[in-house]
Amino acid sequence: MAMLGVVVIWGANHTVVKSTLSEMPPLVFSSLRHAGAAVILLVVAWIVERDLSIARRDWGWILLLGVIGTVIYQMLYVTGIGLCTASNASLILSTSPIFVALMGTVTRTETIHGWNWAGILLSFVGIFLVITGGRPGIAMVPQSLLGNLLVLGSTITWALYTVLSKRVTRRNSVLSATAWMMASATPLLVIIALPDLLAQDWQAVSLQSWLGLLYSATLSVAAGYVIWNMGVQRLGSTRTSLYSYLGPVVAVIVARVFLGETMEPLQVIGAIGGLLGVALGRYRPRR
Question: Who has greater pLDDT, 9 or 277?
Fold first, then answer.
């Protein structure tokens, strides 16, 4: 149930982020929400566990995963969704299990069969249609295309974070590890965002945007990352990543209701094909 809750929160978060970015630049939004989430997680971890220690040999991984999951992923995602639709962003991100599987093959922790390869191919065709609308270089708005490609980059980055995070969470408390991964990289994110933070017109930020930032920091980032990493620890990276199938359903409905977003017919076909491809890509025949 907790994983399903995260899927709903993250599905709605695409619309929340898209709306809030109309009053805050991507880096301002991302740095503020992660600074807030890092503080929340450290405080909660201390209250719950009274121990924030991490195994000495894992600090290198903590720092690396912090940069991957907090700095690189967030910069790609938030900048990308500012240029494309919330629906597209969610649909592209839903293909992360495919990249988890491919990375597992490279590291020899996964075995991909014939049906899986067919699913991977179908998924990539679906991504292509979602990103381009089936009309590459003709009717596609360059800005939107760039946004879609940035979100695709964030998807690959999130898959890498999912695969590598198990190295840390299997030897440490998930809550403490997640808190330190976020806290260790947030100062770098703030430094990168500093020019935009200084230039931001804070009086122009509405209450709705502040509430959107609060929602994204507390529920999407602080609670979401902890529950996701718990899933990786208990279910494994592959089974946890399967929950991302449901995200686009929530995201498309919320974006339609609150942002009035629509999709081209070929993008709908691509979305359906992409989700079917992900399902085939993760299929394991019974023995």
Answer: 9
- Among residues 126, 81, 157, the alpha carbon closest in space to that of 275 is found at 126
Q: How buried is 199 (Cβ within 10 angstroms: 0-12 exposed, 13-18 middle, 19+ buried)?
A: exposed
d(CA 98, CA 234) in angstroms, rounded, equals 20
Contact (CB, 8 A) for 269 and 195: no
DSSP state letter for 2? H
Average of per-residue pLDDT across 53-74: 93
Mean pLDDT score, 94-99: 78
What is the distance of C-alpha 224 from the center of its chain?
10
Phi first, then psi: what are they for 43, rounded to 5°?
-65, -45
Average pLDDT, the chain: 81
**Which pTM does this prediction carry?**
0.78
Question: How far, in Å, CA of 143 to CA of 124, rounded?
Answer: 21
* Residue 93 structure tokens: 């991100």
Burial zone of 231 (CB within 10 Å; 0-12 exposed, 13-18 middle, 19+ buried)? buried
Q: What is the 3-state secondary structure (H, E, C) of 127-167?
A: HHHHHHCCCCCCCCCHHHHHHHHHHHHHHHHHHHHHHHHHH
Annotated domain spans of the chain: 2-281
Phi and psi based region of residue 108 (left: phi greater than 0; alpha: psi -120 to 50; beta: remaining): left
State how far the alpha carbon of 81 is from the alpha carbons of 20, 124, 144, 214, 233, in Å.
11, 20, 9, 18, 29
